């Protein structure tokens, strides 16, 4: 009997860094520095170095990391924020939470990321309709691949919009060696455990080069604090990252560059071996993806059979995402660009993600590829 294959293996990495994390935990326990302890400051400085941005504001989740900039810019009722529909709910959820309207935009069939031409048309349509004021764009680095920021930034500049990078999956991904912060006003990421850079609970971070915005975000993080935490100058949140999670992240960040390299190597091997069997997400040669997911398209209504066959062979697979946001009960009353989103709809019927993590060995990968091949003959 073959060993069960994990979809994401967090245990191998944990065993590499367990001693170092436990030493940090023990110091935090001794100090009682549970909230905004020294590890939080240390992590923020390291993340700024890593992402090449002046300010990092750690926070309680990736969702807060997206919501807080909207709050800081006073985006709310009557405003439109342009988002993909082929993404995790939080990307659009934060717009609704801020009181504004998410307007759903199409993605490209090969990269699965925001389609800049459709984005432009949707903004023009919104302006022509006149009921909402365009304020911002949230581009998602889906499955780890950096979005087409040069093109999206040009659209944002043309219409005077803010640009947020939802890098929950793609924090660390590069285009021509540059991360999303080279183009976006704000980079927001999640440290949910299954993310390429994850902690052992919930966590997130916001990065920006704008010092004024960074100050407002730090205030929002602690209930809109002013000169001290009992001076409340705006609405805010309990938005802090706790010190234990910062300690985990410091140790994981030290391994992250080598893990991104491993993910790139594993993804390239998948793509080579799966060539002619299934169509994977396309990555341009000038992109380094963090490969949060390795996702392929199985067309022709064969996805369910493909997944069952993999399951029988002991290979787990997951659908990200089976239902687009613009068709979800909580989101379907918000506007959709153009005449609907046919690419998004199609992707939702075809995509399936295979096991992917930095510690996937070649023998296991061979088993997965063999099962995929057998499933489709
Ligand atoms: C694209 C995307 N945006 C936002 C989030 C929200 O992050 P969190 O779960 O940390 O709130 C996630 C992940 O969960 C995500 O995948």
From TrEMBL:
<feature type="modified residue" description="N6-(pyridoxal phosphate)lysine">
    <location>
        <position position="195"/>
    </location>
</feature>
<comment type="similarity">
    <text>Belongs to the DegT/DnrJ/EryC1 family.</text>
</comment>
<keyword id="KW-0663">Pyridoxal phosphate</keyword>
<feature type="active site" description="Proton acceptor">
    <location>
        <position position="195"/>
    </location>
</feature>
<dbReference type="GO" id="GO:0000271">
    <property type="term" value="P:polysaccharide biosynthetic process"/>
</dbReference>
<dbReference type="InterPro" id="IPR000653">
    <property type="entry name" value="DegT/StrS_aminotransferase"/>
</dbReference>
<dbReference type="GO" id="GO:0030170">
    <property type="term" value="F:pyridoxal phosphate binding"/>
</dbReference>
<dbReference type="Pfam" id="PF01041">
    <property type="entry name" value="DegT_DnrJ_EryC1"/>
</dbReference>
<dbReference type="InterPro" id="IPR015421">
    <property type="entry name" value="PyrdxlP-dep_Trfase_major"/>
</dbReference>
<dbReference type="InterPro" id="IPR015424">
    <property type="entry name" value="PyrdxlP-dep_Trfase"/>
</dbReference>
<dbReference type="GO" id="GO:0008483">
    <property type="term" value="F:transaminase activity"/>
</dbReference>
<dbReference type="InterPro" id="IPR015422">
    <property type="entry name" value="PyrdxlP-dep_Trfase_small"/>
</dbReference>
<protein>
    <submittedName>
        <fullName>dTDP-4-amino-4,6-dideoxygalactose transaminase</fullName>
    </submittedName>
</protein>
